[in-house]
Known about the structure:
This protein has eleven helices and two strands, in the order ααααββααααααα. By secondary structure, the chain is mainly α. It has a two-stranded antiparallel ribbon. The model has no long low-confidence stretch (mean pLDDT 87).
Amino acid sequence: MDINLLDNVKESGQPLAGQVAERISQLIIDQHLTVNDKLPNEFELAKQLNVGRGTIREAIKQLAAKNVVVIKRGLGTFVTKEPGVVKDPFGFAFISDSNKLASDLLETRLLIEPWAAGLAAEYATDQDILRLRKANSIINEKIRKKEDYGEADEQFHVIISSCTQNLVLPKIIPVIVFSIHQLMPINSSLESFNLIQKNTMETHREIVEAIAAHDSQAAKEAMYRHLSINLDGVHKKSDLS
């Protein structure tokens, strides 16, 4: 990290702040910094990278915009929970046809998540299964209390992806389960919403038990049923519109 970036900025063509942001990202990787780990302060980074403090400030702003770090006033700069993972990287929130978006996202999930559930059943550890059961219990409790369970449902599917021990899936799943946020207002407007909630509880239980039993085929089938029920609900809403 003692490289003088000013010597290389003209050759790369990339603005200095961008190069500094890359160096800081590499520092995070090299030092195995994780969530809530604190970065060196502005003065220390400027000295270490041999650039001005203004450049460090701009680089940190770029990293914050990419969800690599979070700036806590009066405390410093810290690594985020999922560095570099942006909540809505494809701008789904700006697509006006929410029914079509929810339908297309669910169709995409039907291609990926049953397979992911099958992998989860093969590779889930005892600790993974405990986390999955706890996440499902939270969803069930929220449904019983008639509370919004969208965020808890999203976390349930993210945990399944992490059970696969695949490095890529936990990065992809949070993007495509954006449909959960789209589904809540759609499903809640249906007369069959109580049935949808009941089916959610039942199919989630089937998914959890299949993964806990390390039954790959049963996990695939349960996930497929779960997503298919949700897709049917979206199609019914579209037919009524």
